Structure formats: structure tokens, C-alpha cells
Amino acid sequence: MDKFTLNDLKMGSRSEVLTFLKKLWNGENAPCPVCKNALELLHKKAKKSDCDWQCRHCGKIIRTLDIIDELNKTMP
């Protein structure tokens, strides 16, 4: 399973990325940036964390905290 990087999201601005991440954290429906299928929580049973999401269709994982770190380094 691969994980998403900031470049994989293919979003042009900081505000687009932040809007996408906020939707995930709020539990709103946000489609996979690659295949447009629904994203699911990665840790449903383990700890009820809303930080990591997975697309079951393409198998990619979105680690939101890693993306925030990457965003802060590249788009201050």
C-alpha cells in the first residue's frame, strides 16, 4: 500500500489542500483524489483516529499529518 504525498493530491493551492483535509477530519465525504471513490478510515477498530484514510479501490493511504508537514515545508 502506497501513501499519498502532497504531489499525488494534484491540488494547486494551499487552501485546496487544507479544505480537503478539513473535510476528512470533519467526517464529510471527500473522494479519493486519484480515482474519485470513497475514502474510509484506516484505523476503524484500533483507535478511532481520523488522521489516516484509505482508498480501498486504488489502495493508497492518506496520512493527513504527514501531508500537513509536507505542506508547511513546501507551501509556507
Quick structural overview:
This protein is an alpha+beta fold. Helix content is 30%, strand content 13%.
Along the chain, the helix and strand elements come as HEEEH
For the biggest sheet, the summary is: 3 strands, antiparallel
Percent in helix = 25-40%
What structural category arises from helix and sheet content? alpha+beta
- Given the structure, what is the number of helices? 2
How many E-type strands? 3
Percent of sequence in beta strands:
5-15%
- What's the overall geometry? globular
Please identify the oligomeric state: single chain
Strand order of the largest sheet: 1-2-3
Chain-averaged pLDDT:
84
Terminus-to-terminus distance: 29 Å
Give the topology, please.
Elements: H1 14-25, E1 39-41, E2 52-55, E3 61-63, H2 64-74
Antiparallel strand pairs: 1-2, 2-3
Describe it for me?
The protein is of the alpha+beta class. Helix content is 30%, strand content 13%. It contains two helices and three strands. The protein is globular and about 35 Å long. The N and C termini lie far apart (29 Å). The mean pLDDT is 84.
Q: What are its keywords?
A:
2 helices, 76 residues, alpha+beta
